[in-house]
Amino acid sequence: xxxxxxxxxxxxxxxxxxxxxxxxxxxxxxxxxxxxxxxxxxxxxxxxxxxxxxxxxxxxxxxxxxxxxxxxxxxxxxxxxxxxxxxxxxxxxxxxxxxxxxxxxxxxxxxxxxxxxxxxxxxxxxxxxxxxxxxxxxxxxxxxxxxxxxxxxxxxxxxxxxxxxxxxxxxxxxxxxxxxxxxxxxxxxxxxxxxxxxxxxxxxxxxxxxxxxxxxxxxxxxxxxxxxxxxxxxxxxxxxxxxxxxxxxxxxxxxxxxxxxxxxxxxxxxxxxxxxxxxxxxxxxxxxxxxxxxxxxxxxxxxxxxxxxxxxxxxxxxxxxxxxxxxxxxxxxxxxxxxxxxxxxxxxxxxxxxxxxxxxxxxxxxxxxxxxxxxxxxxxxxxxxxxxxxxxxxxxxxxxxxxxxxxxxxxxxxxxxxxxxxxxxxxxxxxxxxxxxx
Amino acid sequence: xxxxxxxxxxxxxxxxxxxxxxxxxxxxxxxxxxxxxxxxxxxxxxxxxxxxxxxxxxxxxxxxxxxxxxxxxxxxxxxxxxxxxxxxxxxxxxxxxxxxxxxxxxxxxxxxxxxxxxxxxxxxxxxxxxxxxxxxxxxxxxxxxxxxxxxxxxxxxxxxxxxxxxxxxx
Lengths: 438, 170
Hints:
Chain A is mainly alpha-helical.
């Protein structure tokens, strides 16, 4: 299977990778408008919730964490697509990563921006979100830094800052090149973003050192972020939450869903931007194998988590366990297993079936499965608490569903705009690869 | 003054390395020589050493932010006389996550700032950089006017073309 694209020159690479930045086709505009309309609808729904109060959402006693928290955990998980994968592949010096990294790093930044909104949406009185910032209020009390909510704020802020810098650093040489060719407002924007990059060896050396360091730091931060998100649950003495396995379980799930998101995005940009020569079957094959590995790991953690609960036979835990496996949440559980294990195992595990299309199909099912997994972690435990008298059901309203759907549309909008402004493949890295590496 | 020499086509990298070795042998310091290209070039350390203190800076930034956040958190916890029934107001276990994240934030921000410093980006009064086209490598030598002949010879010997001087003579 060919690794290198059959591209003859640096000029050819530039032409191919800069081509998507010029103009906008009618198809692009239609898709952008549709996605923007859906995202706008989500804003309307949120506005309605702000106006009428959090009561318009389906979250009420005893289920105070519904779709918003599910979406929060899901999008933070997706954010592990980029930075983590890119950092691991950069540190291990995997040559095939180069056409993949920027697409992945952009997913991280956008997914974090979307995921980071949910705690604010969930607050209800969103205009008071600044109470989370450490400043002395009128009662001279500071935010409680022992609260996992504050842990989330610091973890996500650090991760977003790091991921944005990690995306921005390798973008500098490319925008410096673009600044020479672009005109008008694009030229001004590229020049500003290039920070006066000239291409001197001092700059390249500094960039290389910074990228290596950032890759190491960001790995540590990425793992900690999803562990902290897991601890939001496991620090509570609630049935099926209070588990020491939750940290690594969440990290594995996050990387799993992140790779799936990356595969879908890559398949889309390959097709729509005609980058078949750059995003080759080799890249999809490697990522598909990673996805398969993560699917097996996910299964291992899921079995470990559920088997110990079942064998322990602790009555409070068994209520939640029973509801998940064979009760009213049972169908969701088995669809999750189908999506996260059976489909990827069949489509990606059998070598003859593994190709770009099946990898994309498996990735879509994995995203569905991982969203269901988050739902099954959040809702059943709250529905079946320690006191049977407090049991209750959760039904999402149109507001929550609209906001959830709008986040996917927002991701699409952000990605479409990004892909129109910046090369989706790091040109300078790719040129270096085509000269020196396989 | 600055002397610029361009290298194009084929074995440009090898010729650039020859030129750099020649310049160093003629006594030009590494700080007076810059190589411009559109992609990173692997230049052996003995030819053109660029020392980086970025790791040290990142660790220093991390330690600084860690100390600051510990101080800040302990101040906020003790600033109000809450009655906790004997429980500690300030606990490392419960605040460890915040310390860790802010420590890492310190490392990230310091790395970025140090990158800007080491790369010389955003610095005012930088000497004019040659406009490097794709596939081209350019060497810029900072030299006194009496050294310019030696620098030019080094560049020419390695096959540089379009050798031009710029900046004030000194």
